[in-house]
Amino acid sequence: MPKRILQGVVVSDKNDKTVVVRVERRFAHPMFQKTVRRSKKYKAHDESNAHKVGDNVFIQECAPISKDKCWSVISADQV
């Protein structure tokens, strides 16, 4: 089964080797057909602490690294 890849914005880089990424999705409301924005935050593994707040990053599913971290940051050229 292929691994999911999501795009988002780094909102926190305070943890060591971890960044928090906000992923936004847009969809049409079922009744009103107005575009609705919903976001969710994911913790992602960043081995080299290279990404800072405000960076656009791609994250990919991986095996669980800790209790609530099962995503890893990949660079844009690997997508």
The CATH architecture can be named as Beta Barrel
The CATH topology, please?
A: OB fold (Dihydrolipoamide Acetyltransferase, E2P)
Placed side by side, the strands forming the largest sheet appear as 1-2-3-5-4
Radius of gyration, whole Å: 14 Å
Low-confidence stretches: none
For the record, the count of structural domains works out to 1
Number of helices: 0
Average predicted local confidence, pLDDT: 94
Output the structural class. mainly beta
Strand content: over 45%
N-end to C-end Cα span: 17 Å
How would a textbook summarize the main sheet? 5 strands, mixed, barrel
CATH H-level name... which superfamily? Answer: Nucleic acid-binding proteins
Description:
By secondary structure, this protein is mostly beta strands. The protein has a single domain (5-78), classed as OB fold (Dihydrolipoamide Acetyltransferase, E2P). Helix content is 0%, strand content 59%. A five-stranded mixed beta barrel has the order 1-2-3-5-4. It is globular. The mean pLDDT is 94. Keywords: Ribonucleoprotein, Ribosomal protein, RNA-binding, rRNA-binding. This is Small ribosomal subunit protein uS17. Belongs to the universal ribosomal protein uS17 family. Part of the 30S ribosomal subunit. One of its GO terms (cellular component) is ribosome.
